[in-house]
Amino acid sequence: MTTVRTRIAPSPTGDPHVGTAYIALFNLCFARQHGGQFILRIEDTDQVRSTRESEQQIFDALRWLGIEWDEGPDVGGPHGPYRQSERGDIYRRYALELVEKGHAFYCFCTPEELEQMRAEQTARGETPRYDGRGLQLSADEVQRRLAAGEPHVIRMKVPSEGICVVPDLLRGDVEIPWDRMDMQVLMKADGLPTYFLANVVDDHLMGITHVLRGEEWLPSAPKLIKLYEYFGWEQPQLCYMPLLRNPDKSKLSKRKNPTSITFYERMGFLPEAMLNYLGRMGWSMPDEREKFSLADMIEHFDLSRISLGGPIFDLEKLSWLNGQWIRELPVERFAAEVQKWALNPEYLMKIAPLVQGRVETFSQIAPLAGFFFAGALPLEPGLFAHKKLDADQVRQVMQLVLWKLEALRQWDKERLTACIQTVAEHLQLKLRDLMPLMFPAITGQASSVSVLDAMEILGPDLTRFRLRQALETLGGVSKKETKEWEKLLAALG
Ligand code: GLU
């Protein structure tokens, strides 16, 4: 019998997402229960959006949760490299193999040409899709254009009719018509593979036997299945996990729920409770108990207990469960966890320089800097009354700053200052004019220690969370305003 091998394949393009941890947890449990291996692979073929910082955050966040992998970019293993950006030659070789076998072809279309093709199709009332024009080129012409160094991509052929049957471990056979599939690009003009090629090649070469991934990938499954067929490879067992949802049933999004794992760490959730809660997403223990450990979950894991109704990721429910965990800790362990959370020397050393010059006694520290040890702050709209800006402008400023900070990848005082400065300039104001709004949002007080330093120390998760909270306190932002202000944001650059 072959060993079960599962994997998680995150793209390092932003904050470490709870959805990544959720899928990782289920893959881990499945592998462990079968005495198999769990692999972490980094899918960083999007050169523009992928960063090493984000990759490191994914490692740290998963480890904080207690999720460990047997092979991966940072731990090595026999099937490396485990970072797709380091596997370029492998993908090229396999893309060429498909061309030689007649399953894929070169396409030299310029973006403008494709744009025009789609516009014409739309004008005729057709669904825009690649019309196969690359297939019309003669072998000689292809050679000539390749030799001339013309930019090109490699696309896969797909059947134009019929049905693809996707065997899903949760839903059974799912039928998807082929006419919904486009002739997918496999190799981009920059010589890097797309998700489809890299994912199939890697899952095969890394010996992956079971793929548990989010159901957002189900509609494109036929392309993966076709690629396995073209290569003549056995396809792994597929399992499309239900998507996490906001309490209003929409897809989990950071607009409605914090989605970054580090947010939960900063808020003082216990990793065990987080994992427990993620394990409750669409799955339950045979005895339906709510509180269970990773070891319990591995022992009792069973795909047939996954239910397909969209699991709701609800902060209140998570907090309740976290409370259960916290209250059952031996008190020494509780104290040790609190210390590790924020009463550790490293964190205190960041805060010390800000408070030392402002207090006469240690007992003044808590009233001055208690916000460093808080999550949500008690706010009231009166705190945000502004000398120069009316209430709508105040909300606009807060929203613009929040958006700028949501896009900020490197979090330091200089860059934070620059973001706020940009918004200020747009309103012909100075940086210091906006500070009276930042203080209450971030510290809960009209004045405190340096707020820009505080934002740097609090980090992106808590800072953004508090700005969102402040906006809520001020009445929120309507859909119409969001649209209008997004234009302003674009103009800010
Ligand atoms: N890189 C994909 C992602 O970020 C992997 C999806 C899959 O598991 O195939 O979700």
What would your notes on this structure say?
- The structure is a single chain.
- By secondary structure, the chain is mainly alpha-helical.
- It has a domain at 381-491: Orthogonal Bundle (Arc Repressor Mutant, subunit A), CATH 1.10.10.350.
- Helix content is 47%, strand content 8%.
- The longest helix is centred in the C-terminal third of the chain and has 23 residues, at 451-473.
- 33% of the residues are buried.
- The model has no long low-confidence stretch (mean pLDDT 95).
- The protein binds glutamic acid.
- The site of glutamic acid has 7 residues, from loops.
- Catalyzes the attachment of glutamate to tRNA(Glu) in a two-step reaction: glutamate is first activated by ATP to form Glu-AMP and then transferred to the acceptor end of tRNA(Glu).
